[in-house]
Design goal:
CATH topology of the largest domain: Rossmann fold
Mean pLDDT: 88
Low-confidence stretches: 45-49
CATH class of the largest domain: Alpha Beta
Length: 314
């Protein structure tokens, strides 16, 4: 299928009204190319680099892009978009250059275009995540490599909540232990636990597509002998004791199943909880403490929180 990319070179002031016009014309989303992104300061954690190509951005102003299917009505739609944008001048909105360009994009190109933004990233003291299509030479002899082919549904493993979980696993997992990964997604946390020499990893997810994706990634990293991936709702039916339970899921879900975690984790074992936004931090902490854990460490990255919690012996 062919799509038409419509690009409007305009100003920051006009981003919102122009985006609204494109949405009303049938675009399901917009891309904003703002040169300010090139100079924006970002926290550089464990060598994480934001790969932005200056050639993709205008010298001044911004470019707002949207995609519309190529059909017999496209010409009329584009004319209506141009007219609506020009009408913004009646509201004293600065349109800048107000230059509009149209180009065709094949849907097949989109399927792989995202890959150019996914590069090897060192996310912790030990771990580097490498896309399967990249050649990468480890920097040090003790570096642990996770090869990941996340597809477009389950992320790249470099989201702050995932990074914090992996850092927490480094601090808690000991060789020979049993780790349970609740809401495994791409399977990256289970793979990390196995590479840290956990003897057994139970990877659980309710989503069948996630389960299939995780199984592929587990095999890519050759840890299928220690990682068992299956479809499951949280910890329902899990009775085998675990040394570590890790859950990178919504705060609201964590709050609901802290008692179940306490039933599974051995005394002195750990519960790593992530996916928590700052406003929910105290509520999650309270639930975890009430279930018999002590909060040993709070990790923060951007607006996200992860908790390393130790189960009380008594």
């Amino acid at each position: 299928m062919k799509w038409s990319e419509i690009a409007i070179h305009t100003t920051n002031e006009a981003i919102e009204p122009v985006s609204n016009i494109l949405h009303e014309a049938g675009a399901s989303g917009v891309v904003i190319e703002d040169p300010q992104e090139l100079i924006k300061e970002r926290e550089n954690v464990f060598g994480e680099i934001y790969h932005l190509n200056p050639a993709d951005y205008p010298d001044e102003g911004v470019i707002v892009k949207a995609y519309l299917p190529v059909n017999s009505f496209l010409g009329e739609t584009v004319d209506a978009i141009k007219e609506s944008i020009n009408n913004l001048l009646l509201f004293d909105i600065d349109l800048g250059r107000n230059a509009i360009s149209i180009s065709e994009v094949n849907e097949e190109e989109w399927a792989t275009a995202w890959k150019k933004y996914y590069n090897p990233v060192k996310i912790s003291e030990k771990f580097t995540i490498v896309p399967t299509w990249e050649d990468y030479t480890p920097v040090s002899s003790d570096e642990l490599i996770i090869e990941l082919d996340p597809g477009m549904a389950f992320g790249t493993g470099t989201h702050p909540t995932t990074v914090m979980c992996i850092q927490a696993l480094e601090r808690t997992v000991e060789p020979g232990q049993h780790v349970v990964d609740v809401g495994t997604g791409s399977g990256v946390l289970s793979i990390a636990a196995a590479l840290l020499n956990a003897e057994k990893v139970t990877a659980l997810d309710l989503d069948q597509v996630a389960v299939a994706s995780a199984k592929i990634n587990v095999k890519l990293n050759k840890v299928q002998d220690r990682v068992a991936v299956s479809q499951n709702n949280l910890l329902d039916g899990v009775s085998e004791a675990a040394d570590v339970v890790v859950a990178n899921i919504l705060a609201e879900v964590i709050i609901r199943f802290t008692d179940d975690v306490a039933d599974v984790v051995k005394p002195g074992g750990y519960f790593i909880a992530s996916g928590i936004i700052q406003p929910k931090k105290q509520e999650v902490k309270n639930a975890i403490i009430e279930s018999g854990f002590t909060i040993e460490e709070t990790i923060t990255m951007e607006d996200w929180v992860a908790l390393i919690c130790k189960k009380n012996d008594n």
